[in-house]
Write a structure and sequence with these properties.
Blueprint (H helix, E strand, L loop, with lengths): L1 H18 L5 E5 L7 E2 L1 H8 L13 E5 L3 H11 L3 H13 L7 E3 L2 H10 L3 E6 L7 E5 L1
Parallel strand pairs: 2-6, 3-4, 3-5
Antiparallel strand pairs: 1-5, 1-6
Length: about 140
């Protein structure tokens, strides 16, 4: 009986750990980007390096935060992977020449500055901290 409870708690933790912070972030882009919304699958594909161009043809310049609980929770919510798995997947893409590394930002302020200065950029910040950045709706 104790084993069943432990398994149930473990599975519950995995589920809730993946969804707990799923609405605590907003996806932001450069103000000139014509894209107003993305599906969950489109966002996941961009974040995992499967898609590297916007629908209009320009390059996606992905930016991620370097570390922290918010970064880990957001990566998990978007991609379904832990931050370490996300990082390893990108290292593989870079090593094989199939991707360009996401630009790591040390803070929310740096993320906002990067997105504001780079056309085609895509990043994420906590809800309420998006400032003047263009927010992309996730359907």
């Amino acid at each position: 009986m104790k084993t069943k409870i432990k398994v149930f708690l473990f599975v519950s933790l995995l589920y809730w750990g993946n969804t707990l912070f799923s609405e605590d972030y907003v996806v932001i882009t450069h103000s000139s980007n014509a894209i107003d919304s993305l599906s969950v699958d489109e966002l996941r594909a961009i974040m995992l390096g499967d898609v590297n161009r916007w629908q209009g043809g320009g390059a996606v310049r992905l930016a991620v935060l370097k570390w922290g609980e918010f970064h880990g929770a957001t990566i998990r919510a978007i991609t379904g992977r832990r931050a370490s798995q996300f990082s390893r997947a990108w290292k593989k893409l870079i090593f094989t020449g199939q991707g360009i590394a996401p630009r790591e930002q040390g803070s929310v302020e740096e993320m906002l500055e990067y997105v504001a200065a780079n056309e085609g950029s895509l990043g994420y910040v906590p809800v309420g901290q998006e400032g003047d950045a263009k927010v992309i709706t996730i359907d």
